[in-house]
Write a structure and sequence with these properties.
Jelly Rolls, about 20% strand, about 45% helix, 11 helices, 5-stranded antiparallel β-sheet, single chain
Length: about 300
Amino acid sequence: MRHEAGVLPSHFMAGRRRAGGHILDPIPSNAGPRITTFRGGAVYSVRAPGSQKFVADNHFAAIMLSPSPRMTAGFASEKLQTYDAPAGMLVISPARAESSLTWTSTRENIALAISPENLLELAIQEFDRGYVDLPILPFGTIDPTALKLAELLKTELTRNEPPNELLVDSLITVFSIHLLRTHANLSIGATTRTRGGLSAVDARRVQDYLQENFSRKLAVAELSSLCSLSPGHFIQAFTKTFGEPPHKRLVNLRLDLAEKLLAETDITIAEIAYLSGFSSQSHLTSAMRRYRRVTPALVRLNR
């Protein structure tokens, strides 16, 4: 079913409510920098030796970013196991599965949270499957794709500026699709879909929507709903059509406006940052330096 431009379907609004800030509550607030997006949540964590018991209403996945020897872990009534955790190890904690963990050295990892409703929604959208069984993986399971995504999330969460929410939402979406495709048990075998670009009509619809809304927070699901595409298909189709992923197009639109205001008005740089969709003057400065190799002050000086 196609949705009219600018009208958000009910499943998007329901998903937006599901992915509230509480999804990351089971992870201590001092564990490390975090962000919650439409699709779920992500935390970069470096923790000293310790232990924890864990149970949550949402699915969690942890990807080790560096080796951690002599970890002891187990799920529910299973016998505890002691092992050396390698970099790239993926641990899946399905919703409401009780687990315990003790680690004797510093533990560095990315933890991802996604609600069962959101994961099921992706299974329906991406694979036309209405049932998801998320298994507990054997300890020591290495997932190179998960590690690459975790490293990208670490980079974004540890910058000296607010993380790009659309990029993080995209990475959580791609990770969730990978989880479904590689590790989950679906009701029937997954289907493969053709991955092309956006149609001319959809490309114009998304482009117009971005032009009207780039200065506020946007989610991948919000944009994909405009084209009646699944989030994973949308990211690929958008990139093929425009030559850059959605998050980069969003940043460039914000920078275009900032440069125009800097060159043509006397509005303060701090206010221009706010009007362009950046959280602060320093956020604008770092983004402009990164993507345009210039600073706001230099743009204004050379006008």
